[in-house]
Amino acid sequence: MNQTIALWDRITGEIRSQVNEAGLNLFLNSISPRGIEGESFILEAQNEICKEWIERRYRLLITKILQESTPPLKCVFVTRMKRGPHDRPQQLGLPAIAETPVMPAPAPTEKARPVPKGESGFNSKYTFETFVVGKSNQFAHAISQAVSKNLGTMYNPVFIYGGVGLGKTHLMQAIGQEVLRQNPKARVAYLSSEAFTNDFIESITVKRMSEFRAKYRKKDLLLIDDVQFFAGKEAVVDEFFHTFNELFQNKKQIVLTSDSPPKKINKLEERLVSRFEMGIVADIQPPDLEMRVAILKRAAADCVIRVPDEILMYLAEHVTDNIRVLEGAFNRVVAYAGVVQRPVDRDLVDHILKDFLRENTPGRITISWIQKRVAQYYDIPEAEMSSKRRSQNLVLPRQVAMRLAQILTDASLSQIGEAFGGRDHTTVMHACEKIQKLVKSDPEFQQEFERIARFVDPQGRR
Question: Which cell locations does it reside in (predicted)?
């Protein structure tokens, strides 16, 4: 038992040096040591998806450590046996959900009052209760909740930025709906910058600017989406500038969203940039694997069709763009399963994802696209494709990407090497030959390589 613990400490110590805390938690929640049997070190995975993920990412590293032990051991991966309904598992069936701060917002302690109907235009699905919180959005979520309870006094303005489909609009609408639940008489306006612009133009046309100003400057809470589209519209910017100032001076709350931080919005006047940066600026990053699984678990809980945990993990690994795309893929899988009356299994998901990913794949495969997709598949930073680090869990993905670049592009070995951190053509040749040999000699790796190739090129252009 002491040797098992010592080896496990060595393995986790090596992995700790290569990944962040979230990555380490994901590993620890995916697999655990069962013990040593004869010449084998037995590692027990939560399920088949976890087993495949650990094998493809850490198999070489673990094997190297075990070969250096006395006596040398070989690594055997097994899947955890199913327990009875009264047996308490040591870890959850899905990796990292229980041990990391990825969680749905807590349910309200009392039944929430419905948001009053009116001009707010809120989507009832976009509340704090339905927002999944993770490291990528934790700060923005906390600020949004605080603002909804203390309008105009704590953080003003609040500026939330991030890419498409990451939850900015969800948080903004959650703020508005929470304020109206607490105070149905609160004066709240929620609209896009385009709607504000159109309303402004129409008010000028019909000569009702006084009504326009009263409409927006008498609010307790003003929420405006996509303020980057104000850039370059001088008259609109001037009107919004004065609206902003009056609300701020009267301690009324302002919440704004954009796809970029204020200073990086092209052609946005400096006076607006300085106003936007007066309060709190919070960003939302793309969701990591743990958070993507949590989002899918919430969607699955509301679904009439049963979706196994293994399939949720499989989807989360393959659809990495943003939350909107992830939910779209899930909805498509569930809808198709309902129409054809089939259970949701790996074959069905592969069939759906092939079409889904084709729509999101560039017409021409490039080396940078291959690097991006292979890095996503192996769950490593894309920058490692061109780095000089030679950790076991980085070398194989890099070599796989080089081989795919040789197959899927017209680039020469020298051009491929240049794209992979300035490596020479002999390094690329060695990598491609190694992958070719592995494909021929290892049936499991052959299947893995084919899966990666489909992930990179759903249209099968090889």
Answer: Cytoplasm
